[in-house]
Structure formats: C-alpha cells, structure tokens
C-alpha cells in the first residue's frame, strides 16, 4: 500500500522530465508557427523579389517608322541561322561596311561571335531540358536576340538607340518571331535615374 500511495501522488511541476517535455513541445510549436507565417505572409522584401513592376512599355514596331534603306542578310555558319539588318553602313561609298561588301559579292553576313556563343549555351540548356527567358541588355541590332529567338526562346531586348530599334524591328519581321521577341527602348542599370547618352554618327 505504501508503494501505491507514492504512485498516486501528484507530479511535481518543476520535475526535470516535466520541464524537458514542456520545453521541447514549446520549441516545436514555435517552429511550426514561424514556418507557417513565413509561407503564408511573405515579407515585403520577398514580395518585391518575386513581383515585376513594369513601368516601361514595350517598343511598338508597328507604329515605328521603318528604317531605310534596309540591308539585311542571313548569317553564315550557324546551326540556327537568322537574318539581321545593318544599322552601320560604314563610310559610303568609299569604305562600306564589310557586310555590305559581302552582300554585293553574294555572300552571307559574317558570323558574329556572340551569336555562336549564345546558341552554344542555349543548345546545352535545351539538351538538359531547361527553358527560360533570354534577356538581351544592349541589344544593338539583335545579333544575340535573334540567335536565341530562332531557337524558340522568349527574348526581352533592351536597346536605347532608336536606329538600332528599327533594325531589331526589321529582324522581328524577317525572322518571323513577333511572338517571341519583346523590345524595350531603354538602357538598363542597377539604379533608377537619367543619364546623358551619346552616340557616334557618320564614322
């Protein structure tokens, strides 16, 4: 009976086992509440990282006046060939751009190194089953843009020079990729602001 009386005694609240059980349960509960709040209510910083606030409208190729003259040709030696339009004609008629001379000889445009590199990288991505959006910062006349677009990648092209934008629009039509290429008349930076932009003319 003495042993039975001891077993029926109330448990002490400050006993080591009770404290350990209380502490571990509280820790699990706090961890669960913290993880739940992180999943359901992202912090403003996290929201900023996953949302895209578009403040620049895409350049409208249909409303833009067409460039003239248009000197365009296919690019030589690429697995996925494309056409692009020249914006730099060189010093006519004495010293035309090298690609104008090639066109007059019946040859395709010289292959830009950047186009080769882009297609090699994207080809590896495709073989690995990866897809994505190709962002061309400083698109010029689209040598990287169209290298990606003719492979089926969606492209966001940023270019601040109007004459180059006209040539990109030429390339959009010539390569039949209006659904894949979105053009923005803008320079890109990690800061918001205005800069003075200079361009070389009649070199």
Automatic annotation (TrEMBL):
Protein name (database record): Methyltransferase FkbM domain-containing protein
Gene3D superfamilies referenced in this protein's UniProt entry, alphabetically: Vaccinia Virus protein VP39
SUPFAM superfamilies membership: S-adenosyl-L-methionine-dependent methyltransferases
